[in-house]
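From the shared-data thread, chain only:
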Amino acid sequence: MALQLVAVTGLSGAGRSTALRALEDLGHFCVDNIPPALIPQLMHLLTEGEHLNRVAVGIDVRTGGFLEEAGGLFDSLRAAGHTVDLVFLECQDAELVRRFSETRRAHPLAPGGNLFDAITRERESLSPLRARANLIIDTTGLTPHDLRRAMVDHIARGKRSH
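Structure, as tokens:
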């Protein structure tokens, strides 16, 4: 059985958790911060059951070296007949800094360090995934409700790549 996979990635603080919650509300089985190498095993487990046909995964910079495998992995899943949709969330640096200061959460690449440097390193690390994305959403100025609506609109319109 072929599954529909939505992979949500992008900059820390750009709204990945909000996007995944929207997908969960749309009936996707969601897993956040999964190493890309485990996605094929997840897909295999889910194809054994008839009741789940949509899955969403969150991938971020915390997966480290596993990020390098993600692009080829998505190609392999498509070749196996699965529908794969890669959504990349980005945001302007100043807005990300504001969001991190409001939540008082540490950026995964800057625990106690320079936030702007961490954002720059993260952009570089995620650039191969951004290049493969079939939907890029700039969340600068978007409320969580706006991002949720954008995700619902995208999925409801069936704009997934094959």
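Helices lie at 16-25, 39-48, 67-79, 93-103, 115-132, 144-156.
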